[in-house]
Amino acid sequence: MCGIFGYLGTQNATPLLLSGLERLAYRGYDSSGIAVAGQNNDLKVLKASGKIENLLKLNAADPIEGIRGIGHTRWATHGEPTDINAHPHTSRLGNIAVVHNGIVENFNDIKKMLKASGHNFKSETDTEVIPLLIETYLKSTPSLEEAVRETVNQLEGAHAIACISSNEPEKIVVARKGNAGGIAIGFGDNEVFISSDMAALVPLTSKVAYLDSSELAVITSNKCRISTLDGKPIETKIHQVDIESYAVAKGGFKHFMLKEIMEQPEAATSVLRGRVSFSPTKFMLPSLPFETKEIQGFSRAIFLGMGTSIYAAQVGARYLENFARVPASVENAAEFRYRDSVLDEHSLVVAISQSGETADTLEALSEAKSKGARTIAITNVEASAITRIADATLLMHAGPEIGVASTKTMINSMIVMYLLASYFAQERKNFSLNEVESHVHNLSKLPALLGDAIENALCTVKSVASKYAQSKRFLFIGRGLLEPIAREGAMKLKEISYIHAEGMSAAEIKHGPIALVDQETPVIAIALNNPLYEKMITNMSQVHARKGNVIAIATTKNSSILNNADDVLWVPECPESLQPIIATIPVQMLAYEIAEHLGNDIDQPRNLAKSVTVE
Ligand code: F6R
Predict the structure, then answer these.
(1) How far is the CA of 421 from the centre of ligand 1 (A)?
(2) What's the CA gap between 191 and 205, in Å, rounded?
(3) Which residue, among 603, 605, 495, 481, has the nearest Cα to 531 in the 3D structure?
(4) Ligand 1, CB cutoff 6 Å, lining residues
(5) What secondary structure, in 3-state letters, does 352-370 show?
(6) Closest Cα to atom 5, ligand 1: which residue?
(7) How far is CA 615 from the centre of its chain?
(8) Which of 52, 59, 527, 535 lies 20 to 30 angstroms, CA to CA, from 76?
């Protein structure tokens, strides 16, 4: 949700902090700031609302220098994204600065208490209570470390914080409580970097330690000492990270989103690697710790996620039920976590989160685990918080995704769930050898099919987008496995074009939404060749009869679709089970082209962030 970056070493911290924040900008980009300890260790703070360019300009006009500092890029929760509300926040005397991810749930009580003892607040944020509390604790505790520990223990909710003080110039103290974003600590030569995620450390180091929930670290230029929030020392485990897998650059593409759409055939190849064997044909998921007997004993599965990950999960649940005959349902993680669900060791809970950091999904998964369910995390980020909760992790292997709107991670999470469902079907003996062979064969064709779908879309989407870009709203309809893709299409369009869109089962439209249909409301109908095709045609003609424009997503060569559609986006013929994956391409590209036509900020759409680490 927000990004934290810190530096302590021998170089000038300011350019390192600014470039670190630029790499973290996808996590939040409504304001940013840095605090750097200058000569005499006095803290100098620069903050600017808007994109990080504004902070860069501020620093260029009046540069600040020092060998130690912290920075933050924000996604506002409490208080508007103004200069004053931007982080870092400082103590009354200005000698302590804090950057923070998360929400201080008891901030009203703490604020009242601090006000009663004479503190004035400069900002409208919940975060400001943190430096003020640290300052208060420093009156009775000997060190910054202890004051931060006491403070974090007093905060309700989930938090990640970094703090510097001019009184203890040789250190930065960081702490994590719950799931409000990660803290990765990267080690160089006599210098240490702190970041919300590994990706932002890539140009700097490959040696990294991760802070877990309920841990605190005191960092100096050559040492990192970790302890629990109740003061027990913990060994610092340093990981050597494969930095090549984090390579990120826009290449020749105008936007990361377009690049990431184009990368999907390659991403699909990566996710299949090592998980399907062609000779003998079989599915393999070596990272799953479940014995065949346990897989055979699962009586139900619940898939959890938020946003796009829920739509991917809706496809995945249908795969699992259809292939492995395990009753499967999908729940919104934020609702599930507060619902007293009935689970036991025969329940499988699968949580999908591309970032591995979504607070609602992490909490829901922890809740499921505490009730005895067996748990799997599907994520794109190795060693992300979700991987430390689940019994097993299946990585999406999509490569870094920078565009805020998920594209290749949506495709790869559906493929991972296809693999999971097929593996379960193989182990539960629901698939015959022939069926295993035919599913392996289908998946082997997937990267090429995705490439064809992209080629087809490149030919037609731009002109359809410019024809309809001024529409006041869009409806997306689909049936069966394609219903979640209709929902995803509407989500993608809303996120980056800011045009209102709804996605639904085509059967649902006549129960209310059809009232919205008029000449300014195009209906995108995902009508591929499958057993529900005729039903789709009926729903499309209901729209046509009300003078609505229908844009069909249809299988190539199905020319009869033209009787029921004004425009067509063609996708290649493919097995029914692959249709949701293939049909995702035109809905992504339509959203992209409409947003591009409207001149929007596609990679960093307004009000959004890539990792949602708050409730
Ligand atoms: C939409 C999008 C979001 C995320 C949602 C969950 O393009 O990216 O809807 O899907 O915020 O995020 P993860 O998958 O990181 O848990």
Answers:
(1) 22
(2) 10
(3) 481
(4) 306-309, 353-355, 358, 361, 405-406, 491, 495, 611-612
(5) EECCCCCHHHHHHHHHHHH
(6) 307
(7) 14
(8) 59
The correct CATH number of 261-431 out of 3.90.1440.10, 3.30.70.20, 3.40.50.10490, 3.40.50.970 is 3.40.50.10490
Are 487 and 591 spatial neighbours (Cβ–Cβ below 8 Å)?
no
Report pLDDT for 466.
97
**Residue ID of nearest Cα to ligand 1 atom 9:** 307
Tokens 């208060």 identify what position?
Answer: 136
**Closest residue (by CA) to atom 13 of ligand 1?**
353
CATH 3.60.20.10 matches 3-252: yes
> Which residues are identified as catalytic?
2, 610
Q: Which CATH number fits domain 445-598: 3.10.290.10, 3.40.50.10490, 3.40.640.10, 3.40.718.10?
A: 3.40.50.10490
Contact 521, 473 (CB under 8 A): yes
Measured from the Cα of 405, ligand 1's closest atom is 7
> How many Cα neighbours within 13 Å face the side chain of 536?
31
Residue 377's nearest CA partner among 369, 386, 385 is 386
Q: Are 37 and 164 within 8 A, CB to CB?
A: yes
Domains 261-431 and 445-598 share a fold: yes
Sheet architecture: strand order including 300-305: 328-332, 300-305, 347-353, 374-379, 392-395
| Residues of the chain under the 50 pLDDT cut | none
Domain boundaries, the chain: 3-252, 261-431, 445-598
End-to-end CA distance of the chain: 10
Distance CA 79, CA 96 (A): 21
Instruction: Provide the pLDDT for residue 154.
Output: 97
- 3-state SS class at 60: helix
Q: Tokens 């879309």, residue?
A: 457
* Cis-peptide, bond into residue 280, ω within 30° of zero: yes
Distance 582 CA to ligand 1 centre (A): 20
- Say what the pLDDT of residue 179 is: 75
Q: Is 286 exposed, middle or buried (0-12, 13-18, 19+ CB in 10 A)?
A: exposed
User: How is 567-601 classified by DSSP, letter by letter?
Assistant: EEEEE----GGGHHHHHHHHHHHHHHHHHHHTT--
Handedness of CA 550, 551, 553, 557 (dihedral sign): positive
Q: Residue 252 C-alpha to ligand 1 middle, in angstroms?
A: 26
Beta strands, E only, 293-424: 300-305, 328-332, 347-353, 374-379, 392-395
Q: Contact, 568 vs 562, CB < 8 A?
A: yes
Reference 284, options 273, 268, 298; nearest CA is 273
> What does DSSP assign to residue 11?
S
CB of 470 closer than 8 Å to CB of 498? no
Q: Would you state the pLDDT for residue 1?
A: 63
- What gap in Å lies between CA 591 and CA 598, rounded to an integer? 11
Distance from residue 179's CA to the centre of ligand 1 (Å):
16
